[in-house]
Design goal:
By secondary structure, the protein is α+β, with helices and mostly antiparallel strands. Helix content is about 20%, strand content about 35%. Strands 1, 2, 5, 6, 11, 12, 13, 14 and 15 form a 9-stranded antiparallel sheet that branches. The radius of gyration is 25 Å and the shape is elongated.
Length: about 220
Amino acid sequence: MKSITPPAATGNGADRRLGAIVWEYAQAIIIALVLAMIIRTFVVQAFEIPSGSMIHTLLIGDHLLVNKFIYGVRNPFNNELWIKGQSPHRGDIIVFVYPLDPSKDFIKRVIGIGGDTVEIVNKKVYVNGKLFPDPPGVQYTDPRILPASVQPRDNMGPIVVPKDSLFVMGDNRDQSYDSRFWGFVPLKNVKGKALIIYWSWNPDNFKPRFDRMFKIIK
């Protein structure tokens, strides 16, 4: 006589197998999410350029990856340094927490580091008495079309950058809200160094800029 497996037993076995499969997928998803969070917090993060303050180095619609590990690893809650990395150098393009509004991230070029003397004379930038070269493709706006309240952009200093701080400026010198107006960036506010443009979208004509993709940021 053939034995007959009770329907309930068959159902329980199928349920267990289904539960095991669901749990395996859930584990894989959880691990992937945790790894993505760790990478985003400590290694590399994507950012989008929303303004023209870094033209022509970076354009509105550029999407870039930022190396967050290069300057060290910090506690994401209080910015306490966990693992020391290299210090930002003059000329680095960095992403940082805007000192006057921690909810915003800014991107600018490092002009002066702690101990440097920065001076601006007729739009020319001098660091420790030496001319800091203009970024490639920099353009200046006729000062007559701008109010007098923004003229510190053209002549300033000399000032000394405090220890553990940075003086930063946008490459689009006449259209950048930067250290000339709101002061220094504490090193603890620095999130990372701009690395590469992985995608670029022209908001004027809604077309991709293929020639900018995978461009190393300098």
